[in-house]
Amino acid sequence: MSGAIAILAFHQGYQPLGDSILLSAIVAGIPLYLLFVMLAILRQPAWLSALTAMLSAAILAALVWKMPLGLDVSATTEGMANGLWPISWIVLNAVFFHNLTIASGDFDVIRRSLTRLTGDRRVQALLVAFCFGALMEGIAGFGAPVAIS
Questions:
Q1: Which of 13, 17, 60, 121 has its CA 20 to 30 A from that of 146?
Q2: What is the number of helices (H) and of strands (E) in the chain?
């Protein structure tokens, strides 16, 4: 069949390890366990912990769940893109918003308002972390600022 497009079909088994759903669930959680251990116990950087967890998930998909390599690579790439796109968009909007407030002179208004609320730098840092993070989420258009803060 010349010119035909090959469609890769992959049927995921939910109990790949000896018909034990418990063992399969434990093995499926290995990337998360690895992420938590690397972050909380080993105190590794977040980027290294996330990369290691992603690679372990891809390896488990190929070895345990017998996912074809092409699908494994494409699913991993799509997952990375779906994770990086919203973060990059929020950062871009934060930079744009910051530049806009500086150019318009409204950043001084925000600064004065913040110092009027409290003189304690620690409380100001908490206000910026929670409230400004929610503002950035809202400006970026992802609709979850209250849930995140």
A1: 121
A2: 8, 0
